[in-house]
Amino acid sequence: MDRNRIRRWKAPKTIGSYRRTVLISLCFLLGSSYLYSWEVPKKETLNLSLWKKIGVVEHKEPGKKNTLKPKENTPKHGELFFDFEGEPSEPSLSEAGILFPSKSISVVSSSYLEDTHTHFFGKKSAYFSGRRNQIHLSVSGNPLFGTHPDPFSIAIPLFMGEQGANSVILDRTVYVKGKKYGISLELNEGKPILYVNNLLQKTEGRTVSFVLESSQKLKRKTWEVISLYFDTIHNRYVLYQNGIETAEYENNAADTIGFGFPENDSTPLILGKSYYGNLDGFHIHKGEPVFSYTKFESVRYDDDTKIGYMEGSLAVSPILETKYSNSTLQEINWQIEKPQDSMLELYFRGSNQKFNETSHLEWTRIRSINSDLPKQRFKYYQWKIWFRPDPLGKTVPNVQSLSFHYLEQSPPDVPTLFRLDPQMSKTQTNTVCFLWNSNHEKEVQNGGGYIIHYGLTPNRMVGSIFIKKDKGNELRKIDGNEENSGFRNKRFCIDEDTLISNIYIPEGNLEAPEDRSMADYVDVSRKEKRGLLFQPGMTYYFRISAYNRYLNEWDSKDQRSALSAPISFSFPKEVTNLK
Predict the structure, then answer these.
(1) pLDDT digits (tens, 9 = 90+) for 335-382
(2) Minimal CA–CA distance to 230: which of 297, 172, 167, 274?
(3) Nearest Cα residue to 477 out of 504, 449, 453
(4) 578's torsion region: left (phi>0), alpha (psi -120 to 50) or beta?
């Protein structure tokens, strides 16, 4: 979108309102944060850090539109996790930019090729080409690779290349006095084999080796997950392929006393030691393996409760504010991608009263962006998007752009030609009459009205007149439609009874509909004295304002015009000459 065009374009003013567009753009300029731009009458920018994101990330890809989508199903804890989203020298930098807190596992050296066309997590994976590409990890000092480790797991998603059928994927071995210690995960004709060398400890200082050999070949050119589980408490060691157990070794002999690596062993853990193919999502963590290695959240089913679970992810905007109250939503536009069986829902809430994140203001689901939009009027509003992957966790919906078009209710203009009525009666005491031109706004003509303000100086008003009594002694708004009045000669007279009616206004029905009469908006404080009666021998200054039918004293005070220029009237006083 042409930013200069946005700056130059001005929307025409409609009668009593402005049309304004709010654009939440996910098409960033120079990789900047989300852009909120108000086309009329100004432009504002908010930072993405203001967003509340629950399992949602900004997806950036050079040469393509940035999108908002659910986070990938990366592990939430662990000693180490490589999704290879960072530079080859920092393979542990994840998509969220958060490193696992292990200080005892560090990258000594790293060499691999980035592959943006093949990936299991994120947007790229690591390609290894034999001995030229390896990652050396220092694990000395880490308790999982110490002399008495807790149960732990290693998971390796791999994409085997044409030459990868005979490879060394993971290795940490050392020779002590001619004896080999450590672990080595290899492929032999595509079948995973884990060699555990002299790590099972026996009495009298003896050690035992064992091998976990799978009979299942890995498929070529597809992602396969190998998981290794070291149950050091029960001395049970298992190899899994895609969550299915394919090899197991268990030793509960009476002379078996534990499992552990040699003391003070500084040998590095080598990933991709002699491997041809891709690796992604390499993960070391305590406890049992995670068997659900789907790229995104997948559906879960509880056999006990017979209930399915799939929470999805949320992106929630900050609470936004329009310039004027009583705005109405007119149109929503967005560009999205929604794969089959995934879900993408948009919600909106708004109010003239200010609210916060914890307010019990109801969300409205947008069933159609072209029709049946929420009808509430608002000054403050918020939107949220719910993302849910397909049930298998393979694909997710995403949002490329989102824009809200709303009609903003501007206050009316100041009434024109406010003046004293030259034909006002000379016989009435302490009475003054006014003329002015009718406002053009339909919101003033249909349910709105006028307020006449008065004071003892031109710039300080101490009282206001906005209701009158009709023939039935009922309170009504001042609309200027008195006898001998017209469109260019709205007319109203103020006498002592009018002043008293406005000084002491009874409390209205606060539960009435939105377009209730002006008297209904008066709160309890209005029953106290507010204003003064006209006094002979004083000059009073008068100003007038117009208001829309949406005006109320709590959340729509902006629906009133500014005050007109003051006019004055002096009430005569009879003075007797007394000696």
Answers:
(1) 999 999 999 999 999 999 999 999 999 999 999 888 889 999 999 999
(2) 172
(3) 449
(4) beta
Q: Which amino acid is at 546?
A: A
Task: Single out the residue of 296, 321, 280, 308 nearest to residue 114, CA to CA.
Answer: 280
d(CA 150, CA 137): 20
- pTM equals 0.66
Closest by CA to 19, choosing from 369, 376, 408, 374, is 408
In the predicted structure, residue 237 carries a pLDDT above the cut 80: yes
User: Which amino acid is located at 431 in the chain?
Assistant: T
With a CB cutoff of 8 Å and minimum separation 6, the contacts of 261 are 145, 146, 147, 149, 172, 181, 182, 199
Q: Is 430 left (phi over 0), alpha (psi -120 to 50) or beta?
A: left
Q: Tell me the pLDDT tens digit for each residue of 117-165.
A: 998 887 889 999 988 999 999 998 899 999 999 999 999 999 998 888 8
Contact 212, 154 (CB under 8 A): no
DSSP state of 7: H
**What letter represents residue 328's amino acid?**
T
Q: What is the pLDDT of residues 394-420, one digit of tens each?
A: 889 999 888 889 999 999 999 999 999
Pick from 511, 530, 531, 529: which is nearest to 521 by CA?
Answer: 511
The overall longest dimension of the chain from CA atoms, in Å, is: 135
The residue assigned the tokens 């709010």 is 22
103 Cβ partners below 8 Å, 6+ apart?
Answer: none
d(CA 69, CA 401): 12
Asked if 84 and 116 touch (Cβ cutoff 8 Å), the reply is no
Type of residue found at 245 = E
Q: Which residue would you say has higher pLDDT here, 139 or 473?
A: 139
Q: For tokens 């000059």, what's the residue?
A: 539
Question: Cα–Cα distance between 382 and 190 in angstroms, integer?
Answer: 53
Q: What is the pLDDT of residues 168-200, one digit of tens each?
A: 999 999 999 889 999 999 999 999 999 999 999
**Nearest residue to 32 (alpha-carbon basis) of 48, 55, 56:** 48
Q: What is the reported pLDDT for 13? A: 41
Provide the pLDDT confidence category of residue 471 given band limits of 50, 70 and 90.
Answer: confident
Burial grade of 242 (CB within 10 A; 0-12, 13-18, 19 or more): middle
CA distance 104 to 221: 34
Residue 264 corresponds to which tokens in the numbers above?
A: 């003070």
Helix ranges (H only) for 62-121 are: none
Element (H, E) at 6: helix 3-8
**How many Cα atoms are found within 13 Å in the side-chain-facing hemisphere of 494?**
27
**Rg of the chain in Å (alpha carbons):** 38
> Given CA atoms 94, 96, 99, 100 in this order, what sign does their dihedral have?
negative
Write down the residue that tokens 């003013």 correspond to.
Answer: 13
Dist CA 126 CA 124 (whole Å): 7
Burial of 480 (0-12, 13-18, 19+ CB in 10 A): buried
| Distance of alpha carbon 354 from alpha carbon 4, whole angstroms | 33
